[in-house]
Amino acid sequence: MSCGIIATVAQILEAIGTIGATVLALVLALFGRQVAERRFGPKLELKLHDPQGDLIERPDKKQTKARYYHVKVINTGRTAAKRVKVRIVRLDRKQPDGSWSQEKRYVIPVQLQWAYSLVWPPAEQFQASLPTIWTDDDYYCDLAYLNEGEQRVVIPSYENPTNFPGHVTEGNPVRVHLIASAENCRSKSPLVVEISWDGKWSADGDEMQKYLVVG
Q: Whole-number mean pLDDT of the chain?
């Protein structure tokens, strides 16, 4: 093989190598960040905290009792999830025949309140309702609560659109579908929680779980 042919082959291989390196750099630029985020980024998960809920006393003159039910938000990834919110993305109602049907007339999604947050935060404080959740951090949202003596289970949210019920009444079960989302990730699949109440109240956790089913 002549020196000229060898030089030509070397130039072709060099050109192929240059093109390959350029293509690889382009692929890494386009998809490298996505791959890195999937492998090393945040991963949000939702879990029902305690089906029995937490019994509290309101700081009022009557010391009204209430039972709160929470959803736990966990980041099992390797980096922080930024500006996290938990939203109801779908609501189902139980039909007379026992089947479930999606409610399409309501404004969805709505954001659940973080536990211990203000009910109606002013605009300048709304930023506080979108926390950064670090690896292995646990945050809690208020999923529902029932005040002793009241006739509805409240689903607390930051938004209260007029055509979103925001509560569950006796004998009218609902299923809520929840998603945790952030600027840089979202939970893989919805957490589906049924809320069903027969209208009764008890301060005892085991007894109350027979009357108000959250799970």
A: 83
**156 burial level (CB within 10 Å; 0-12, 13-18, 19+):** buried
- Among 157, 172, 138, 109, which residue's Cα sits nearest to residue 49? 138
Residue spans of the domains in the chain: they are 41-214
In order of 54, 95, 156, 171, 200, the CA distances from 152 in angstroms are 17, 19, 12, 10, 11
Mean pLDDT of 122-132: 63
Question: What's the whole-model pTM score?
Answer: 0.78
Q: 102: which strand partners? A: 92
Which residue bears the tokens 């990730």? 185
pLDDT tens string 26-59: 544 555 555 445 556 999 999 999 999 999 998 8
Contact residues for 63 (Cβ-Cβ < 8 A; gap 6+): 57
Structure tokens belonging to residue 112? 């659940």
| Token pair in block for residue 94 | 């139980």
Instruction: Determine the residue type at 215.
Output: G
